[in-house]
Amino acid sequence: xxxxxxxxxxxxxxxxxxxxxxxxxxxxxxxxxxxxxxxxxxxxxxxxxxxxxxxxxxxxxxxxxxxxxxxxxxxxxxxxxxxxxxxxxxxxxxxxxxxxxxxxxxxxxxxxxxxxxxxxxxxxxxxxxxxxxxxxxxxxxxxxxxxxxxxxxxxxxxxxxxxx
Length: 164
Prior knowledge:
This protein is mostly helical. It has a domain at 72-163. Helices cover 50% and strands 0% of the residues. It has four helices and no strands. The chain has helices at residues 72-87, 91-108, 113-151, 155-163. The longest helix is centred in the last third of the chain and has 39 residues, at 113-151.
């Protein structure tokens, strides 16, 4: 049994042929007539010959607007700031990368402003704490050296004082 073909060249028993049915087979290489809006195999396609919306007849819409790409420096700023807890060296690197990333985000309209801001905050707080810790150690060493020079005995005098 032969069914009428729909436009596009496929058969469907429920299709009631409206208008003129194509008399060619789009899958046959000998047929030189293109399927509506599609080129013959091997020929270039011009933008005017393509069907709108990619050939589906309606625009692609998923209900969620597309988000802009995330700035790579924003990601690097956050990672460097968080890695600073383990290395103590990358805190200032993360803070500086965060400032650069925020400027790029404003100029380019990219995403990732929250990551860049988090990198800045964590980076500068970590840097301040690290500088404070280094200053505390330096002061403690200076006091210890100064105390050992004034008493003259050092560790032995301290033990005698503690044991009584």
